[in-house]
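G., before I forget:
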Amino acid sequence: MFENLSSRLDRAFKVLKGQGKISEINVAETVKEIRKALIDADVNFKIAKQFTDTVKEKALGANVLTSVTPGQLMVKIVSDELTALLGGTTEEINLNGSPSIILMAGLQGSGKTTHSAKLANYLTKKGKTVMLAACDVYRPAAIAQLKVLGEQLNVPVYANENSKNPVDIAKEALKAAKDAGSKVLIIDTAGRLSIDEEMMKEIGDIKQAIQPQEILFVVDAMTGQDAVNTAKAFNDVLDFTGVILTKLDGDTRGGAALSIKSVVNKPIKFMGMGEKMEALDVFHPDRMAQRILGMGDIVSLVEKAQSVFDEQEAEKLQKKLLKDQFTFEDFYTQIQQIKKMGNLKDLMGMIPGVGKSIKDLDISDDAFKGIEAIINSMTPTERKNPDLINGSRRKRIATGSGTDIQQVNQLLKQFDEMRKMMKSIGKLQGAGRSLRGMPFAK
Amino acid sequence: MGIFSFFSKEKKEKLDQGLEKTKSSLLGKISKALIGKSQVDDDFLDELEEILVTSDVGIETTLKIIERLQSRVSTDKYLGSGELNTILKDEIAKLLDENKADIPGDFENLNGHFPYVVMVVGVNGVGKTTTIGKMAYQYKKAGKKVVLGAADTFRAAAVDQLKIWGSRNDVHVVAHGMNTDPASVAFDAIQYGVQNNADVVIIDTAGRLHNKVGLMNELGKIKRVMSKVKPDAPHEILLVLDASTGQNAFEQARQFVAATEVNALALTKLDGTAKGGVVLGIADQFKIPVKYIGVGEGIEDLQLFNKAEFVDSLFKN
């Protein structure tokens, strides 16, 4: 359903081939495509409109170099703007308090309890002594859930099953944290709708009673157009200090991030990337921008790679990608290493140009078997120079690997797409442009 | 439609109330866009597009509605805002009409299945367990014997949560505790249902993101294991969607349908957002009927979805 913005823009710019400058006339169609892509990514309609107006202004009169297509230039402008809008730099959590109090707030099902625990884990690993407080007295077994998580993490949980008053529980918890000498107190609260006045007043009262240093608005990355209203309503009551964006391990583009940031102008501090307690990452605006645009995330890929094998290896790969010397041999090695890294589809999705083509594929652990067989059936020369592979060679490879020509063709095409994408990025860099926000920017 | 106590005044008020926000944004905006207009022009269509898109209807369905509206207007000759409202209402109702439903439309009729087995699926945090608690209440009220199966053995305290709903409704919950095999819980729950002459067995499953292949395959396994007790079970695979979800809801629907042959939808948290729109988009794209809507936190705040009333509520002045 979603189409990569780059390919959309390339199509929109077909008419423009040979023109040297982006002008009022030729930019109109593109701007429309960008807006559509943003809306598909759940960016709020109005914000998408404002955003594309800004992009249009920036783009007008920009010189198009011969080495890049106007589409690529446009993508770069959009990506830069988006990164700037999402916050530019990463913001750390404020722990100036004794104890520092972190209040969690959000809609039902956004992941407050899970992320209270993840945050506790994150801070414990940083050497802080943490206490959790269970103030969700409404949802059945919410307190039990926090207790179980606390036990798993070996973090104390303050709960009072006899009380139905979250404000009192929060106060008691603060006292308990002080007595225990905890450095950080994380307060989990019940999910509430932003239009529920009574419940909104309650969380306002909790804030008043305990004066937290951080109030984190926990929001599901899959939220649609309404993200704007919800964020605004919570901010009006709480004046929150930051945002945790959850469930980003799904395939949502997460346009809500942009909407929220634009409306309340509060930093997104963390992102939840999975169900494990370790799956909490510091927010990276540039990666989010690329995700919203559907551009893949080569930086994360390289980083994941680094965590599995040594830095030299990763650097070598990065250089090869840049110099357009990426061969099937490298691809094969990559597959072997990727297989060690976990969920294949997530990883593949990070490779620019690949994400879309694998979207509907059911990738299981032996998903690479066919690809491996095809590569194994190539001669070493063919692996180094995929351009050599003509019709008869394809036939031989297909027979050798027990696949058919269509599969061989598909692999070659995907490989080619990947290389093209990398090549154009290399060129952009060659043209001496700022690469902030682009893949490979380091 | 003969739906049990559905047209009672109290319920209708709740629906109107729950949809208040949807209504004020959809109808209010359309009326505003029409002020001073004597014909449907590009400006109006642009505005209508914005209205529908900001209600999460989705680009494709929005364009479809607009196209239909345009062709209707050119043949029917648009006269005033009253007529336009009627035409729009008509087109929106048609989108919902195109669903083919082969599941029972209320809590009384179980299509002759005994027990009637429901498997509830969805991504994390959409409200599966809560919806099951509310469903159990309604089935019980309709005089059915209900058994719940706690096959969400993954999320901390999920089994406890379902057990609390079980005791509130006074229905039996089959559970093996946390981190046990969900398929075996489902198997035992259905077997317990068969042995104890239950009318309805509802199986809760762990929330899972639709792009996790392993977890999606697990659903397939749970489903296969169910059919070992009763070959045609589960009879209803209910996908629960959060109404505040944006365009990703389409992807969720697509993936869950592919993995488990979803044949009914529940749309939760409809009381909190301006998002009646997602119903239109999903109904249009997947032709799966919306069976339930969740319009509040109370145990009785789950309603059978009624197209006519829903569309009426959207357009009521």
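Chain B touches chain A through 51 residues (CB under 8 Å). The CA atoms of residues 74 and 191 of chain B lie 59 Å apart.

More on Monday.
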